[in-house]
Specification:
With 419 residues, the protein is an alpha/beta fold. The protein has helices spanning 20-23, 151-158, 182-197, 213-223, 229-232, 247-254, 268-271, 297-303, 354-358, 386-389, 391-398, 405-408, and strands spanning 26-27, 33-39, 51-57, 64-70, 76-82, 87-90, 93-97, 108-118, 121-131, 135-138, 170-172, 206-211, 233-239, 280-281, 312-318, 330-335, 342-346, 374-379. It has 12 helices and 18 strands.
């Protein structure tokens, strides 16, 4: 959190391995039901009598158990686990029970062991079931210029168990960045989570991944407790977020009409990215200051809010030193009037300074104290590719811990916004 703190590391990737092996055998036909299919190949014919099925699941504080008979054994035995009711069912018939599980507040992993016996033959199946907390990705500025969401990011996160099919654990929120403002967009995001995300999941908390300006929407909702976000969000992963603004949008606002993106730089959301740190001076011998036409009360007000203690914040950032050749150069200050100002550079990803992404003091600014619980250096990558580059580190942050079945068993129902 302090400026002198060394960048933190996330768990090695082999500790956040792709979860396909855990989830391939399960489906959630409804958000609160887990379905497990066990192949019965190799059992002798039915003339040897009925088969006995034994199930042990570690999902509750006390392992759930079920033993039942099947005269006609299908190719797959399908068992449904009703999480809130604590019931194990086959073909609609309750055959066993376990300690009920309330809506998830974190990732959950537990074993299920099944043994099917007919005569002297036994078929065994072991599954380490992984239930991931749903995660919402908020893309950055000009995301609407894409015809679809970033499939590269979605595909890479799928390798770590995140899916848009049942059980759904990944959501992508699109928004009109060139017309929406920061507060307006934050409220629209909260509405999307309330109406779309929560009804589709069995969770009382969510994770949020905010890329670039998308992270400012998430920060707003957490800081101002919009729709209960100070209690709803478990992890907030901020990827290349201009937490203290960026110089480039200001350049665009004051550049001639031929300058790239000059029109989009005049939008409400772009204005909310104006730096809140001293970045301008009239001459090289003058101190850095904030020009009057760059006053950004919206972002300054947000940065004055503290992060709620229950929200764990990861800050992922691009980091190229301007002294090194070949990497992106990030504007840090302007000397003289735009256009024609002399640009000075600092470490960053080509748009967002590393210090801004981390909420550190810049040229005498206060920064955003206590913003980052963990800092993750993504390397020398340009801003528009940081989210892709950081997919593995993002997954590691989202899966930095798992609750044990005993932790969730018997926990009282956690309130969440009504849909």
């Amino acid at each position: 959190m302090a400026a002198a703190q060394a960048p933190a590391t996330v768990p090695p990737l082999d500790e956040v391995s792709p979860a396909a092996a855990d989830t391939a055998a399960i489906r959630l036909p409804a958000a609160q039901f887990l379905r497990l299919n066990v192949a019965t190949g190799g059992l002798p014919a039915s003339s040897t009598g009925p088969a006995t099925v034994s199930v042990v699941t570690g999902v509750g504080a006390v392992p759930g158990r079920a033993t039942f008979s099947l005269r006609d054994v299908p190719a797959d035995v399908t068992m449904d686990f009703d999480l809130p009711d604590g019931a194990i069912s086959v073909d609609g018939r309750r055959v066993g029970s376990f300690t009920p599980v309330v809506p998830l507040t974190d990732n959950l992993r537990f074993p299920i062991d099944v043994a099917i016996r007919r005569g002297a033959t036994i078929v065994r199946a072991h599954r380490d079931i992984t239930l991931l907390l749903p995660s919402v990705i908020i893309p950055g500025y000009s995301n609407e210029r894409r015809t679809t969401r970033d499939e590269v990011v979605v595909k890479r996160l799928a390798g770590y168990g995140y899916t848009e099919s049942a059980p759904r654990t990944l959501f992508w929120w699109d928004y009109a960045s060139h017309t929406i403002g920061l507060e307006e967009g934050a409220k629209a995001l909260a509405d999307y989570v309330r109406r779309t995300v929560l009804p589709a999941t069995y969770a009382a908390k969510i994770n949020v991944v905010g890329y670039s300006t998308g992270g400012l929407f998430a920060r707003w909702n957490v800081a101002y407790d919009v729709d209960g976000w100070s209690r709803l969000v478990n992890r907030l992963v901020l990827v290349a977020v201009p937490n203290e603004g960026a110089v480039m949008p200001y350049i665009g606002e004051h550049a001639p009409s031929w300058f790239p993106f000059v029109k989009s730089s005049k939008s409400p959301l772009a204005r909310a990215m104006d730096p809140v740190f001293p970045f301008w001076r009239p001459s090289a011998d003058a101190p850095w200051s904030i020009p009057l036409d760059a006053r950004n009360d919206v972002l300054a007000g947000l940065n004055a809010q503290s992060v709620p203690p229950g929200v764990r914040v990861y800050c992922l950032y691009g980091n190229n030193d301007p002294a090194r050749s070949g990497g992106p150069q990030t504007a840090a200050g302007l000397t003289g009037r735009v256009p024609g100002a002399t640009v000075s550079y600092g470490p960053g990803d080509g748009i967002v300074l590393t210090a801004s992404a981390l909420g550190l003091p810049i040229d005498g600014s206060a920064g955003v104290p206590g913003l980052c619980d963990e800092r993750v250096d993504v390397g020398r990558v340009y801003h528009t590719f940081v989210l892709r580059q950081a997919a593995a580190q993002t997954a590691a942050a989202l899966q930095d811990r798992y609750e044990s079945p005993a932790e969730v068993a018997g926990r009282p129902q956690t309130l969440r916004p009504d849909p």
